[in-house]
């Protein structure tokens, strides 16, 4: 382990981090990632002008991410397990996914479209002012599937690899990609380094997430559908990681996602995701349950690994 933690310690901390997140949720007064976002915005305003924007973006990424990662490494060296646990808690976002998406389903079930539009607009960048129930349910389900990787499983993966500093590095890089990784005039060059680094850090976790969605699809037919959607639909997506995650998840749920979505007043026709019926309010909860079962699967695998390591240690003692 790059973190110096034993595998049993990693398994215990992964479970503890998930439990703390579900129990406490996001920090209410000051969330470190919110503070980081403010710093990143200030750096972008200062650096994203003039020539050499690719190099300026690289410098911005280094200034934003590396000092905080180095500080996290120092803290873990001083405080040990406590620092690792705190970093994992602040980086994981499982309860946040539930708390932001299930109210959308509840609003739709009540027939309260204005509330559902407002709630959905808080979690996606697409326009929701005139969205109907199917549009809102689709946006929420897609957000759950994709952010299952970005906010949960990628964090768990990099914690397993490099402890608290690894989880922090991943979430900071992912946050910068969400802020800077746009292909528009403002960020095309400045945000390119942030986007490529996030792609690299997400490559393995995204495919493990997609595989997990396949394994947890209902029945053999569901698993075949999820696998087929992954292999056939993911290459059409410009994001090398969102494609596998969302296509396999949509296939596992038997939903037809992707397609048309409105951004900045313009209809964007995106590649299809999955096959089946359009999403409804009930499918938001189904998407959440898939993310939750995948979390349990990853924890079970970590505990199995810990038990194997301990058994081998006893055998060779």
From TrEMBL:
Pathway: Cofactor biosynthesis; adenosylcobalamin biosynthesis. Pfam families: CobD_Cbib. The keyword Membrane applies. Keywords: Cell membrane, Cobalamin biosynthesis, Membrane, Transmembrane, Transmembrane helix. Its main location: membrane. It is a multi-pass membrane protein. The chain crosses the membrane at residues 59-92, 296-314. The keyword Cell membrane applies. Belongs to the CobD/CbiB family. This is Cobalamin biosynthesis protein CobD. The gene is cobD.
